[in-house]
Amino acid sequence: MLPPPPPIAASGYVLMDAETHSILLEKNSREKLPPASLTKIMTSYVAAAEIAAGAVSMDDEVLVSENAWRAIGSRMFIDPNSKVSFSDLLRGVIIQSGNDASVAVAEHVAGAEPQFAMMMNATGKAIGLEDSHFVNSTGLPDPDHYMSARDVAILSDALINDYPDHYKIYAEREFEYNNIKQPNRNRLLALDPSVDGVKTGYTEEAGYCLAVSAKRDDMRLISVVMGAESAAVRTTETRKLLSYGFRNYRTQVLYSHGESMGNLRVWFGTSENVAIGIGETVKTTMLQRRFNDVSHKLNMPSFLEAPVKSGSRIGEMQVFAGNELIASVPLITLGSVQEKGFFGRVWDSVLFMFEDIEENPADSAPGNAES
Fold first, then answer.
1. 234 and 350, same structural domain?
2. Within this chain, do residues 243 and 268 fall inside the same structural domain, yes or no?
3. Tens digit of pLDDT for each residue in 57-115?
4. Longest Cα pair distance anywhere in the chain, in angstroms?
5. How far apart are CA 187 and CA 195, in angstroms?
6. Which structural domain, as residue segments, surrounds residue 329?
7. Is residue 341 over pLDDT 80?
8. Same domain, 195 and 324
9. Residues annotated as catalytic (active site), given as ranges
């Protein structure tokens, strides 16, 4: 018997498989909520993208403005008119959650924070965020500044995949600047060895928020909890989500690209058959017990006519878990068949007239291979 999902004390949450983006558990995952310092995941993503593009460098010496120095809330404790390396500022953003560091990063990348927020919104649109809007780099409260738990998960996954070296900073336990050592606020880095990021957040409006990514064996899950009552609660609820997900779900390749699914009759060709196979890998995340109920159905013509090109699409395979359709992928030819000469085609025409061909009910005509 499958245990019921645990109750989660949060305004919104989501548990997502990082590779397939399958949503395993959720509540209000599309609700637009104040994200607090979860915003800084996007701040660091934009910074990482600009580093990759060569627009800025980790070695840049950034002149700290008075505007950045005056940022309220959590701080890195940078001094006005001092120069700080871009590398240190990013650690101030990621590890210390410094609002002063976030503004300094925004100003260095875009000239001013409002322009940086425009870059954040453009980036969000490009990576598929649908329920987010940014007006600052810090996550300080604003009615027009929001994210959904789902968007935080998608952003975290994009960061992990697009900028893995940058993401490693999120696993660092502490950072010292200006003779002030501050620990990473993500307590799960110390409590769960499978956790390697992502970010905490808190404002009075947002409550306590936590985005976490954990990898066990070959499966990576991303959990996002928003609007918890305390730092302890956000940690506890996140551990519940991760435990339930890793215990009950599995991500697995069901069929691989190029995997053979048998042969198909070919008329008027130099070979009587051609191998057919899977055009796209089918990988899914499901409850572990459901993998025993996986089946497939091949929808294709009963024969092809030469010439046949390798890799041509000739039909579709539907994949089911029980009675639920979980995937539809192309069927392709795995080889080529040349057309026979004139006399060979004439002889095949005679044979074809007397051949008892069992047609696919949905296909009464020979198949046309699509390149």
1. no
2. no
3. 999 999 999 999 999 999 999 999 999 999 999 999 999 999 999 999 999 999 999 99
4. 91
5. 10
6. 256-354
7. no
8. no
9. 37, 40, 97
